[in-house]
Design goal:
By secondary structure, this protein is an alpha/beta fold. Helix content is 43%, strand content 10%. The chain has a 6-stranded parallel beta sheet with strand order 1-7-8-4-3-2, with helices on both faces. Strands 5-6 form a two-stranded antiparallel sheet. Helix 1 runs antiparallel to helix 10 and helix 2 runs parallel beside helix 3. The termini are far apart. Bound molecules: thiamine diphosphate and magnesium ion. Magnesium ion binds next to strand 5.
């Protein structure tokens, strides 16, 4: 079936496999910078979590290419609905690293009351797949209002077993909602491998049941992801309906910092097709096509280390949460009972 084809632009050594002109050197370089920043951040975040300086952390190692490529394909007006593992999508969307860290320290995503409308990126959903119907609703609202935008909803392979996934795709198909469903199939849902998740050989083919297009893309090929998501967003905005994109990738690390994957998979037990680290692949492309040098690489690594260190300092020197932050956005009007508790806690401070 057509959906079994995997779209790939770069081979494992970063060589162009097609005659496509690609997104352009500037976009690839931008994605690569974000990939290195994301990986540097990821390693630091695991340490910070172990030291109790942030909460539980979901590492994104191995998924840098899909997250940066997909988020880079968004236009400013488009809406993004991410999950708890999509830190690199936030970075690509321009959310400061400090704010990503503050969120992991218990703050809201929009620290210092930044207007979410200008970011057009929703807070990460922890409940699996609940944001998919939201993305469809937001897409339909955009259509009703005549806004020229689409919604990109990111989720994992495990999310495809949730009712919300099926309801969202069904609704989106019936109403031609301008939504792109991006499944980052990293082969694991905590300890459940993909073959125990579904009897379907692929996620993409599930689209057929809802009368929408389903495509598979190599999730470790940032160019292919960028182009696939960009095409799907353009199609959605032209009124031609939603797309289910399955980005095939791999979760290299633990599910979260509370998980020990050696309990359910062998260390270094990665599938044969996982032939190259996505960062290596992007870098080799840059070297070949754009004259990327070892000096550029060293400068980038240094910049990433300094940027992460600066963000950690900024997050840790933030004044912290006020008691009223616990109830903000919960009620339209804070009930009397909670107001009393807040007043008592203020008195006790
Ligand atoms: C509705 C719901 N059920 C169960 C969980 C517990 N849970 C957290 S992550 C996870 C696995 C999700 O796997 P997947 O969708 O593949 O995303 P990944 O973690 O691989 O990015 C589960 C079951 C949850 N958060 N929400
Ligand atoms: Mg998964």
């Amino acid at each position: 079936m057509a959906t079994q084809q995997i779209r790939r632009v770069l081979d494992a050594d970063g060589r162009l496999e097609t005659d496509e002109t690609g997104p352009g050197a500037a976009t690839v370089e931008r994605c690569y910078r974000l990939q290195v920043l994301a990986r540097t951040f990821d390693a630091k975040a695991v340490t910070l979590s172990r030291q109790g300086r942030i909460g539980t952390y979901a590492p994104l190692g191995g998924q840098e290419a899909v997250q940066t490529g997909a988020a880079a394909a968004l236009e400013t007006e488009d809406l993004l609905f991410p999950t708890y593992r999509d830190h690199a999508m936030y970075l690509t969307r321009g959310l400061p690293l400090r704010d990503v860290l503050l969120h992991l320290r218990g703050h809201g995503v929009y620290v210092d009351r930044r207007d979410p409308e200008t970011v057009r990126t929703f807070p990460p959903t922890i409940p699996i797949a609940t944001h998919l119907p939201h993305a469809v609703g937001a897409g339909m609202a955009a259509t009703y209002r005549g806004d020229d935008c689409a919604a990109l909803a990111s989720f994992g392979d495990g999310a495809t077993s949730e009712g919300d996934f099926h309801e969202a795709l069904n609704f989106a198909g019936v109403f031609d909602a301008p939504v792109v469903f991006l499944c980052q199939n990293n082969q694991w849902a905590i300890s459940v491998p993909f073959e125990r998740q579904t009897a379907s050989p692929t996620v993409a083919e599930k689209a057929a049941a809802y009368g929408i297009d389903g495509v598979r893309v190599d999730g470790n090929d940032t160019l292919a992801v960028y182009e696939t998501v960009r095409d799907a967003l353009e199609k959605a905005k032209s009124g031609a309906g939603p797309t289910l994109v399955e980005a095939v990738t791999y979760r290299r690390g633990a599910h979260t910092t509370t998980d020990d994957p050696t309990n359910y998979r062998e260390e270094g037990d990665v599938p044969d097709w996982l032939d190259a680290d996505p960062l290596e692949r992007t870098r080799q492309y840059l070297e070949r096509e754009c004259g990327w040098t070892d000096d550029d690489e060293d400068a980038l690594r240094e910049w990433a280390t300094e940027t992460v260190a600066g963000a950690v300092d900024a997050a840790e020197s933030h004044p912290g949460l006020a008691p009223e932050d616990a109830v903000e956005h919960v009620y339209d009007e804070t009930p009397e009972r909670l107001r009393r508790q807040l007043a008592e806690s203020a008195g006790g401070r």
